[in-house]
Amino acid sequence: MSPMKWFYDHLKKYRLPMAFGLLLTTLLSFLAIVNPIISGKIVDDVIKGEQKDLLPYLLLIILGVTITRGLLRYFSQVIYEKCSQGVLYTMRDTVYRKLLQEDFAFYNKNRTGDLMSRQTGDMDAIRHFVAYVIYTIYENFLLLLFAIIMMFTVNVKLAIAMILVLPFTAAATMKQSKEVKPAFGRIRQQFSVLNTAVQENISGNRVVKAFAKEDFEIEKFNKENDAYKEAELDASKIWRRYVPVFEFLSSVLTVILLLYGGYLVISGEMSLGNLVTINGYLWMLTNPLRMAGWWVNDVQRFITSVEKIHATYSAEPDVKKPTRAIEKKQLDGTVEFRNVSYQADDEDIIQNISFKVEKGQTVGIIGSTGSGKSTIMNLLCRFYDVTEGEVLVDGINVKELDLYDLRANIGMAMQDVFLFSDTIEGNIAYGKPDCPFQSVQTAAIMADANHFIKGMPDGYDTIVGERGVGLSGGQKQRISLARALLKDPSILILDDTTSAVDMETETYIQTQLSRIEKECTKFIIAYRISSIKDADLILVLDRGRIIEQGTHEQLVKNNGYYATVFQHQYGALETITEREV
Ligand SMILES: Nc1ncnc2c1ncn2[C@@H]1O[C@H](COP(=O)(O)OP(=O)(O)O)[C@@H](O)[C@H]1O
Ligand SMILES: [Mg+2]
Prior knowledge:
binds magnesium ion; Rossmann fold; single chain; six-stranded mixed β-sheet; elongated; binds adenosine-5'-diphosphate; 581 residues; ABC transporter transmembrane region fold; alpha/beta; 21 helices
């Protein structure tokens, strides 16, 4: 679908009110020709013709037309405003839904600042177009047309003399809009850069502070701010250059009107009233031409905004919902990876991974940073799709399962904990908003979070700031664990979830996890052997491959990487205990 067709699909719903609005605008423009005619009549018939009794009627007409025009303006404006807000509402809604459907790859590629500008600045350009640009261009086109027609009906010679000036105005307008276009392009581009700079600095302000880089950031920002100011000034310079040109051309029109029109009046070819009438049409002639440069720019801006929004959201997510999904609301939780490989940007992230877990079993995954542990879990949840091989849950390829059913059955505490600015209760109950408080608390108890939550000023009603500001790393991890547990999932994934809690807490959590009543397959990613040594299957990863797999005993016997890490960690632990003794 082309961007414009996409836009029209949103406007379509409002085409009737829009058409009605344009009808009002047509009337409005048409009425603009009345008052100059009446003014001419006042001069010819009332002042020169001395038909004084006509005056009240003529004034009444002027008053009537003015009031009607005012009313038409009011109602048409209301209509355009309503339509534009309506279009904006549905468009924002579609875009937002699409935004939520996009996969991880989309968010890796797109910058938050850019996505925000799509939803704000670009949306506003579209609103401006529907609310203002459409009718303004239409109205001014009619005004120009009516003014020319009326001038010809009044006096052909004078009309021709005046119209001779129009090509010059049109040429100036065209030249101006050509110059203005790149200048405005630069403004928008620079504005986007400025936005991104602000956005990154706000979300990254802790890092900025920690590294005492405020001065550096201020300088960086000032550079962009300066560039933005320059871009705005450049555009206004163009405007400044053209204002005198347009003023001059308008004056030329007035001069022609007075000199040539005056001559025609004196020579008796035209009445004084006619001169007044044509004078009344002058603004209808000059205004559209003078402003056209701006509207060309507005239209341009609208088109780019629609194209940008459409381009950002027309890309279908790589992870697609199956056309005919196998319905399985409740999964058992057996998981199998068959020769799974995953490549991103032509780089092998994981290669040839195969393993099988029965329901209720626990899998431990260990390996150095960047070895692909999180990726394996992302493939299981279909945050990415495998490039080769198959991921099976309950013996079904995950690509054939309904995407939401699959994810509804998985409880995941991600490595990078994200908390919403909401209460702690709201954060834990995120997956099950209607569940009773008792369940929230039970989940928190299992995650060893109940204790510290109760110690907070408002307990479970404490609002955690953006991204959980005010909580320690370990506290955030435990809330995220409670959130995953509350889902009562068939597959539970703990990605580095206990890395920031002490050993004692970890042991407590492990005991709790082993008490989960429902048979739940668990994946535990950890650096500490203690976190995974009781697992039914341990996978040791290195550079995207499984280098060892088996139970703790088997792996220790194996005397490979795992055994080394084990000796390292437990050896260290023994030394500490010895020293303490
Ligand atoms: N979608 C992706 N695009 C590009 N690189 C990726 C993608 N997913 C993972 N990687 C890269 O693959 C490697 C493994 O990542 P990850 O699974 O997060 O490692 P781990 O969890 O073991 O620390 C990292 O180098 C990471 O940058
Ligand atoms: Mg990871």
